[in-house]
UniProtKB/TrEMBL annotation:
<dbReference type="InterPro" id="IPR036412">
    <property type="entry name" value="HAD-like_sf"/>
</dbReference>
<dbReference type="InterPro" id="IPR006379">
    <property type="entry name" value="HAD-SF_hydro_IIB"/>
</dbReference>
<protein>
    <submittedName>
        <fullName>Hydrolase</fullName>
    </submittedName>
</protein>
<dbReference type="Pfam" id="PF08282">
    <property type="entry name" value="Hydrolase_3"/>
</dbReference>
<keyword id="KW-0378">Hydrolase</keyword>
<dbReference type="InterPro" id="IPR000150">
    <property type="entry name" value="Cof"/>
</dbReference>
<dbReference type="GO" id="GO:0016787">
    <property type="term" value="F:hydrolase activity"/>
</dbReference>
<dbReference type="InterPro" id="IPR023214">
    <property type="entry name" value="HAD_sf"/>
</dbReference>
Length: 265
């Protein structure tokens, strides 16, 4: 059976993994089969690299990963930065001030390091699920250089309110909902789609030879860029509308079914 796509871009949370952050046997085997057939596999995620490496290892793969929603493209073999979109600390100051005033938890990220002002047991548990142990800077700390992403975390009602507030601000940085409980802030040119385009060009891969699978708003740019964009069945309607195809959910091995139906025939 002939391979239909040379490059397959996969979101991680809500797509490759189940809602309890597990990689099922069927999904793992389908991704490995795609790689064995000759497709390049690139994970495209809002996660930091350290949070992606365990998933990549479980898949038995290596190579380039697109992290921080396209903010940093990383070589997983050498643990080096291929490209990043850096945010100036002063650009983030209004967001930091807002979070401090409204008691919204946030973390700040360089390509390889995450920092917070404080941690609670609830927050520690949340970060542990993503294989992350952030550094604690203390309240009122100055922002470092080399930042690629700023993220808030809270209950859905709180995050909804923050999203509405920030949508009224001048668009100096890009704010994007990366999950029900998260909003990410990054460089206005950073996106999964833009990073995927850069990577594909570096590999000489045409757009129509790219398959992308995702489930949330931060995946729309790569679903629209790819020759075939597949939204998971658990995606919000806005994501499904942006895709070429709507597949099964992450609870139904949606990635495995999509690969076997579309990646080769």
């Amino acid at each position: 059976m002939a391979l239909q796509y040379d490059l397959i871009a996969l979101d991680v949370d809500g797509t490759l993994l189940t809602d309890d952050h597990q990689l099922t046997v069927k999904t793992r085997e389908a991704v490995r089969e795609a790689a064995e057939r000759g497709a390049g596999i690139v994970l495209c995620t809002g996660r930091a690299p350290v949070s992606v490496f365990p998933v990549l290892e479980e898949l038995g793969l290596s190579g380039t990963i697109i992290t921080h929603n396209g903010g940093a493209t990383i070589d997983s073999d050498t643990k080096t930065i291929i490209h990043q979109y850096e945010i100036a600390p002063q650009q983030l100051e209004p967001f930091v001030a807002y979070c401090r005033t409204n008691k919204i938890h946030f973390d700040i990220n360089t390509a390889f390091e995450m920092m917070v002002e404080s941690l609670t047991p609830e927050l520690t548990d949340m970060y542990t699920k993503f294989h992350i142990s952030p550094s604690v800077l203390g309240h009122g700390a100055n922002l470092p250089k080399g930042l690629v992403k700023f993220t808030i975390f809270g209950d859905k009602e709180t995050v909804d309110r923050v999203q509405m507030d920030w949508e009224q601000w001048p668009p100096t940085l890009l704010t994007i909902r990366s999950g029900d409980f998260f909003i990410d802030v990054h460089h206005p040119e950073a996106s999964k789609g833009r990073a995927l385009q850069q990577f594909a060009q570096s590999q000489g891969i045409e757009r129509d030879r790219i398959l992308a699978i995702g489930n949330y708003y931060n995946d729309i740019s790569m679903l629209e860029f790819a020759g075939c964009g597949i939204a998971m069945g658990n995606s919000p309607d806005g994501v499904k509308d942006a895709a070429d195809v709507v597949g099964r959910s992450n609870a139904e091995d949606g990635v495995a079914h999509a690969l076997r139906e579309f990646a080769w025939s």
